[in-house]
Structures are given as C-alpha cells and as structure tokens.
Amino acid sequence: MINVLSKLPNVSNSIFSTMTALANEHGAINLSQGFPDFDCSPKLIDLTQTYMKKGLNQYAPMPGVLQLREKIAEMVEKQQHAIYHPDKEITITAGATQAIFTAIASIIRPDDEVICFDPCYDSYAPAIDLCGGMVKTVSLLPNSFNINWDDVKKVFSHKTKLIIINTPHNPTSATLTDADMKQLIKLTQGTDIFIISDEVYDKVVFDGKKHISVASYPELRERSFVISSFGKMFHITGWKIGYCLAPEKLTVEFRKVHQYLVFSVNTPVQYALADFLMDESEYLLLSKFFQEKRDFFVNALRSTPFEILPASGSYFLLANYDKISDKGDLDFTKELTVNYGVATIPLSVFYKNRLDRHYIRFCFAKKHETLEKAVENLARIK
Fold first, then answer.
1. DSSP result, 216-281
2. Which long-range contacts (CB under 8 A, 24 or more apart) does 367-376 make?
3. 58-279 is a CATH 3.60.10.10 domain
C-alpha cells in the first residue's frame, strides 16, 4: 500500500459541491452555488462561434489575446481612472480562482503570514496552505460585516506578507469604502506587504453606490493584484475566464507561475469578449439588472420568517433564521433542502473557526420564476 501524506488534510469536498449534489438528489431549487440559471447574451455566443469558425482554436498568447487586454485597460481607465499597460500589466486567466491562486503562489513562501477577513471565500486559505504560508484571520464586525482596522493592526507582525480583501464581498454582500482604502494605505505604507483585491463582483454594486477599487489609489495600486471575472460579469461562470491587473514587477512574477499552471486561456472566447466589451452597456447595466432581482427577492422573502440583512453588492444576500430553528446552520440548510426544496449555503463554512451565528446565504442570480418558486416553498416554514 502506498502511503499518501495529504498536503490539505483538513480539506474535503467544498460546501458548494455538497449542497448542489443534495439539491439535485432531492429536486430542490438551487440558491446555493453562485451561478445564474439564465443564459448569457446570444450575441456573445455568436461571437465565440464566429471566432471558432475562423480557426482561432489553438493556444492564445500566454498573457492573453492582446485585443482583450486592451479593452480591459480601456474599461478600467474609464471606471477606476487607473492606467494599466495592456501588454505588461494585464493577464487573462482561467477564472478568478485560478488568478487568486497564482497571485498567492507568486509571492508567498513558507512561514509568510497572510491576513484574511472572516468570513471569506473558501479558496484563499487552501492556496495559502499549499504555499506554506500561515493564515491570520480578522473577523468582520457582526451584522454590518465591516472591517475593524484596529483589529487588523493587532495581527500585524514582521512576517506579514499579504492582505487579501474582497469587495463586493462574498458571502456577506458588504462593500468597502474610501475610508477603508485610506486605512489600508496607512497600514501598508513603508512596508513590503502585498494586497490581493478580489473584485469579481465589481460590476454589481447597488443603491447608487460606486465600486471602490484599490486600482484607484496609487499607494495601493503599486502593491496590489486586482482580480476580476468575466464569468460573473457576463453570466458565463462555466467558461472560466477572468483577469489579473498588477504593476509590471508583480505581473512578471504572476506570469512565471501562470505559464506553468495553465499557460494560456480559451482562445476564441477571448476574441469574442474583446468584441463584446465594445458595447459598454453590456456591463454598465449590470448593477441595475441585479438590483431589480435583489429587490424582488427581498420583497418576496417578507412573507417568510427569515430576517434579511442588507446587500450592498454581489448577487448574494444573508438571512438569519433564529425565529425558525435553533439548529446549527449546516443542519438547517440540509433540512431546508430536503424538506422545503430550497438549497442554500451555511455561513459558518466561510469562517476558519466555523463560527455559527445562524446565517445562511442565498444566491439571487436566478430567473424571477425560480425566485418566486423558492419563496413559495420557504413561506411554508412555520
């Protein structure tokens, strides 16, 4: 028998795989995993087919198709007033999760410390562990899920190498502000600390607010990897395509890892996206599109016993179920799936210490009829 010593001994199947499988088994409505149940633009599909038929089906350049990187640079300059060189500072990736892993792998060495904010997206810690780094968590404030920057200062040490932020935030839907960015500047100035800014929902911010990016702050831009996702932007999560913005020195290190991890990304899709980005309305109207879904879902949920928390961005919202059950959130989500036909995600899985405050996460990136049916089921809860 071969003895396998796991590099991730505490990792099993993700909660997203678990809840989706349970939803499929019981024919439940899947509001757990973060993907839409509606199609992307037919125009984007047609563009992709056009480039396939043109024979652009072989390897793309390692950093990505230049036309797409140029369009990203234009978009970022218009929206964030930040200039990134298309050839030297933008890299196309096989989704945002790959970009996050690549950024971590490019700078983290054994015993380096990385500050993450709990609850957080579940790919951060395993990537840090695989690189030999140490995760230092700072809990977001209860209910508001804002950052207490004094708590951040307390975990700083001479080993701190990286801070990972996420705005709009998954799973809490909170967004960072200009005041947060200024605090981050104060904390990192005069240091060699890097930042990964996970901004995959940057086009989905509600109530007239503007997305605040580290790219807009020169003091942060110089030390940051900014990660975004076309999957989230254009309802094509299954196409697995994203990008990383970083100053040239960081991009050089990023691409050293990227070239041996995936080398390059789907060629015809890149050409199609470059053309698709020419119509700015395709992404400028996303906030309005998803806010309508958020408002529809929140209003419908008022017929249920759930307490809904405000959602400032992304296509998730949190709900407290204290009025319904005293079960742990994992057991409660399984009960919802099996008995009421609605699959959700327990918030505790996003915490390093599995803190359970009886919150669950809904994904509302669904058709109105899907959300209506889900609420009908949830309204049966007494």
1. G-HHHHTTEEEEEEHHHHTT-GGG--EEEE--HHHHHHHHHHHHHHT-S--HHHHHHHHHHTTSTH
2. 367/37, 367/38, 368/293, 368/296, 370/29, 370/37, 371/293, 371/296, 371/297, 371/300, 372/300, 373/29, 374/29, 374/31, 374/342, 375/297, 375/300, 375/301, 375/303, 375/304
3. no
d(CA 297, CA 70): 37
CA distances from 359 to 21, 272, 323, 327 (A): 21, 40, 12, 11
* C-alpha count within 13 angstroms, C-beta hemisphere, residue 41: 19
Indicate the average pLDDT of the chain.
Answer: 96
- Encoding tokens for residue 27? 């024919």
For 17, other C-beta atoms within 10 Å of its C-beta total: 12
Residue 282 host element (H or E): helix 281-284
**Secondary structure (3-state) at 296:** helix
Max intra-chain CA distance, the chain: 61
Contact 165, 188 (CB under 8 A): no
Quote the pTM value: 0.96
pLDDT tens digit sequence for 36-46: 999 999 999 99
Q: Which amino acid belongs to residue 176?
A: L
pLDDT at 12 > cutoff 90:
no
In which residue are the tokens 């041996």 written?
Answer: 260
> If DSSP codes are grouped into helix, strand and coil, which group holds residue 380?
coil
Domain extent listing, the chain: 15-40+284-378, 58-279
Does position 213 have pLDDT exceeding 90, yes or no? Answer: yes
- In this structure, what token pair is assigned to residue 170? 């998954």
What gap in Å lies between CA 130 and CA 9, rounded to an integer?
Answer: 11
CA distance 18 to 39: 24
pLDDT the model gives residue 33: 87
Q: Thinking of the domain 15-40+284-378, which architecture would CATH place it in?
A: Alpha-Beta Complex (3.90)
